[in-house]
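During the no-cost extension, the postdoctoral fellow (Dr. R.K.) reprocessed legacy sequence entries with the updated structure-token encoder. One reprocessed record is reproduced below for audit purposes.
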Amino acid sequence: MKAFRGAINFVSPDRRARRRVRVSTEGRPAVPVHPQGLDPAKYYTVHELNPAPGRAALPQEGKTFTGTELIRDGIAPSCANAVEASVIELGS
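Re-encoded structure tokens follow.
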């Protein structure tokens, strides 16, 4: 199977909440993903919905950032092993 890494964004119509699903079928360190569709001026709290036992927490877990910061800096998903996924919610 060819290696695959991808991310999918889901944003509510009012841009207050969003979810990102990141999937990997390759075993190498995760690179930051940059959310799209956020309101640059709003604040969003980062929360991983599916933390796996033994997997490190997101560096941004539980912290609040502006949309501008998240778009610019991205989020480093906690999954890096083959066939692993991370579901991240950004709530305002």
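The radius of gyration is 13 Å. The longest strand covers residues 17-24. The remaining legacy entries will be reprocessed before the final report is submitted.
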